[in-house]
From TrEMBL:
GO cellular component: cytoplasm
PANTHER family: PROTOPORPHYRINOGEN OXIDASE
Gene Ontology MF terms in the entry: oxygen-dependent protoporphyrinogen oxidase activity
Encoding gene, per UniProt annotation: hemY_2
Places the protein is found: Cytoplasm
Pathway: Porphyrin-containing compound metabolism; protoheme biosynthesis
Protein name: Coproporphyrinogen III oxidase
Membrane-spanning segments: none
């Protein structure tokens, strides 16, 4: 058998960050280990990057999708290094964040980790909760641990430990913001399993988070060091990493503007039918599309159908650029979240010029407002002008705005945010088991499955690469 006959082909479907990292690491492994392997990345749209979309206009750097990633989750930083753009990483500027409730911007109490208090002083003096609410939250210090078999909702878990008020006024805006979801339906196991572990190991969430959080480093004179930013982005926007990965990929290995319509199995091979009429034979497939596409592709085979039932929600973002003098802000800080009890369409707003100073020209201000969440999605379907007007009306009640923005950019993400409902982990395990049984060389990875953050997606892409290579070249 000649070397050519032994060559293997892997097709990666979907060119978002999961597919891109899978393609990059697959090619890297093949080159470094001299594997007889061809990689093909198939992307339905005419661009790579998926939700990562950076707009550059009049000196502003504006993100339509994610604006950053957590530094403590290492894989994005490692990927940046591997593709040669680590020197372009910048950290967010830290500053006070607020919750908008009862008509006022209330500072998020210092020492709260995802809403869980770890310092008593700021928690006692905050106006976010009544005295009764504070006393109920303090009950966490004496409440017994409860072992729940299986999954539970975030809302049920946190209300049991800390009471309704702390959950509604602080934890809900913080946690639901990540997923644009309903915490009373969101899975604890699939979103923040670490909190269940804290309860199991330490009983009290407050004491457990205090013990397990990294200590603040003192400076030479004994004072606390200035708080470091926990997030990274790139000086010229997140698309920096997309462009860098694309430069590293073999140009013949990327197919844009082409959609996979069917996947069949013939023996050990997978046969992919593309919408341009082409057929591609692959030894293995890594499917990094959203869960609904995956479910539709395998409908004819009667598997992955529960994936199609994973709900999604729609959100929109509005970037608003102003001259500095147009915005009168009496609050220092980097942005705010809006409690559900407030009668506003706005769900959050980042003062981007403060959080990411490299995004905004001197003498300018950049705000990024968010609308739409589960149950409140109609606004996303309105025309741009209406969304802009509603956002400006809401913002004007919170900060003084003089005159109109220089420009606005409205971005809609329709049916886009996967909702990790209670039992999500079991649904994903079942889908993977169905594939292992009927299509053992097809892997699923991406934001719909095991984490929505950019590093989570990169981790899933890399894990799929390892599985495929172990299978093909064991």
């Amino acid at each position: 058998m000649t070397m050519n006959e032994q060559r293997k082909k892997v097709v990666i479907v979907g060119g978002g960050i999961t597919g891109l990292s899978a393609a990059f690491y697959m090619q890297k492994e093949a080159q470094e280990k001299g594997l007889p392997l061809d990689v093909l990345l198939v992307e339905a749209s005419n661009r790579l990057g998926g939700k990562i979309q950076t707009v550059k206009r009049d000196g502003f750097i504006i993100e339509r999708g994610p604006d950053s990633f957590l530094i403590r989750k290492k894989s994005m930083g490692i990927l940046a290094e591997d593709v040669g753009v680590a020197d372009e990483l910048v950290k967010n500027a830290t500053g006070q964040a607020y919750i908008f409730i009862n008509g006022k911007l209330q500072p998020i109490p210092g020492g709260s980790i995802m809403g869980i208090p770890t310092e008593i002083g700021p928690f006692l003096t905050t106006n976010l909760f009544s005295l009764a609410g504070k006393l109920r939250a303090a009950g966490d210090l004496v409440l017994p641990r409860k072992s729940v078999s299986g999954d539970q909702s975030l809302g049920a878990f946190f209300r049991r430990r800390l009471g309704r008020e702390v959950v509604d006024n602080l934890i809900e805006p913080l946690l639901s913001g990540v997923y644009a979801g309903d915490i009373d339906q969101m899975s604890l196991q699939s979103t923040f399993p670490q909190f269940a572990t804290v309860e199991k190991n330490h009983r009290s969430l407050i004491l457990g988070m205090k013990k397990t959080s990294p200590k603040k480093a003192p400076t030479r004179h004994g004072a606390e060091a200035k708080k470091e930013g926990a997030f990274h982005t790139f000086r010229n926007g997140l698309e920096t990493i997309v462009e860098a990965i694309e430069r590293h990929l073999d140009p013949d290995s990327v197919l844009k503007g082409v959609r996979v319509e069917e996947i069949e199995r013939t023996g050990d091979k997978q046969l992919l039918t593309l919408n341009n009429g082409q057929e591609v034979e692959a030894d293995a497939v890594i499917l990094t599309t959203g869960h609904k596409v995956a479910s539709n592709l395998f409908a004819q085979h009667g598997i992955l159908q529960e994936l199609g039932e994973i709900p999604t929600t729609s959100v929109a973002t509005v970037a608003l650029a102003f001259p500095e003098e147009a915005i009168v802000q009496d609050k220092e800080g980097t942005g705010f979240l809006v409690a559900r009890s407030s009668d506003y369409s706005l769900t959050a707003c980042t003062w981007t010029h403060r959080k990411w100073p490299t995004s905004t020209p001197k003498g300018k201000v950049l705000l990024r407002a968010f609308v739409g969440r589960i149950g409140e999605e109609a606004i996303v379907d309105l025309p741009d002008a209406d969304i802009e007007r509603i956002v400006l009306e809401d913002l004007s009640k919170l900060i003084e705005i003089k005159g109109k923005p220089d420009f606005t950019i409205v971005t809609r993400w329709k049916e886009d945010r996967p909702q990790y409902r209670v039992g999500h982990k079991d649904r994903i395990a079942k889908a993977k088991a169905e594939l292992a049984d009927q299509f053992p060389r097809v892997k699923i990875a991406g934001a719909s499955y095991e984490g929505v953050g950019l590093p989570d997606c990169v981790d899933q892409g890399k894990a799929a690469v390892r599985e495929v290579l172990d299978d093909l070249f064991e």
